[in-house]
Amino acid sequence: MPIEIKNSSSQPLQIDSGGRLLHFLAIEGLDRQRLLQLLDSAAQFISSDTNVRKSQGSLLAGHTVVNLFFEDSTRTRTTFEIAGKRLGASVINLNTSRLSTRKGETVLDTVRTLEAMDADIFVVRDNSSGTAHLIARHVPPHVHIINAGDGRHAHPTQAMLDMFTIRAHKGDISKLRFAIVGDILHSRVARSQIAALQILGAKEIRVVAPATLLPTEIERLGVTALTDIDKGLEGVDVIMMLRLQLERMEGQLIPSSQEYFRCYGLNQDRLNRAAPDAVVMHPGPMNRGLEIASDVADSDRSLVLSQVTNGIAVRMAVLYLVNGGNADEMNA
């Protein structure tokens, strides 16, 4: 059955007794101050200054980051790898097709085995919801878990790199109107984006999709749900497109790819309905001609490549902060 969007707090798992970020599992349960701290920390990691980069290169020296990806990824895994290495950590990318979980070992036993090898930060991605949370409940306090996407539930680092990109290009999020367009039903990205935008006080959040791709409880989150994309894009400042997740669909939820693009694909005419300086985002991978037209994806109003670049800085900040880092001391 489809997983509905529900408000749930991960704060007891994510925050230690001293108020520090222990794990990064979901946006829910975090407050505005903590999200801003993460964004401000990420801003410090974007620097071309050689001395600054050199000082950052020892922040996680002696630590081991394990990318434990049970679901395929290019952008998320690669940017986490680059982020860990830039901070001076040892980074291990595990080939999950060769893990002992394929032989019947539990995920927890796999993590405990890696802990015994002094791995202390795990970046976890799985096609089942809740895997990162499960692991976080069973690791000792010196081990930190980061959710790199779990089923339809959450993708918190993607949401934060999106917030970082928006703030860098458009300024104060509380003054902006947003439209999230596409496969809302199956999108962990949309769930995390909505949570982050609400915490940061977005002026308006619209979600736009066919009725078959809208969760039944979507409006309980305080967003405006629309099935008319032309109405949904009218006057918005930021358009956040989503990938159509055909692999997660049960049954025929769209008539055809061609019909979906005709009714919900972002083309130049539809972009013109938004504010004159509106920007376009997409978490990737993009399906050109299905979710978005190539001329829009490659236009100067597209922030898609900026999202990828900013993902490194945001994930550096997450790795640093869950390990007890203090943003104020970063470049001291």
Written description of the protein model:
The protein is of the alpha/beta class and 332 residues long. The protein contains 13 helices and nine strands. It has helices at residues 11-14, 32-44, 50-56, 75-86, 107-115, 131-136, 156-170, 188-199, 229-233, 257-264, 268-271, 294-297, 304-322; strands at residues 64-69, 90-93, 121-126, 144-150, 177-181, 204-208, 224-226, 238-241, 279-281. It has a five-stranded parallel beta sheet with strand order 7-6-5-8-9. The chain has a four-stranded parallel beta sheet with strand order 2-1-3-4. α6 links the parallel β3 and β4. α4 (75-86) crosses α13 (304-322). The longest helix is centred in the C-terminal third of the chain and has 19 residues, at 304-322. It is globular, with a radius of gyration of 19 Å. It starts with 10 loop residues before the first helix and ends in a 10-residue tail after the last helix. Mean pLDDT is 90; it is low at 1-7.
Relevant terms:
13 helices, 332 residues, 4-stranded parallel sheet, alpha/beta, 5-stranded parallel sheet, 36% helix, globular, disordered N terminus
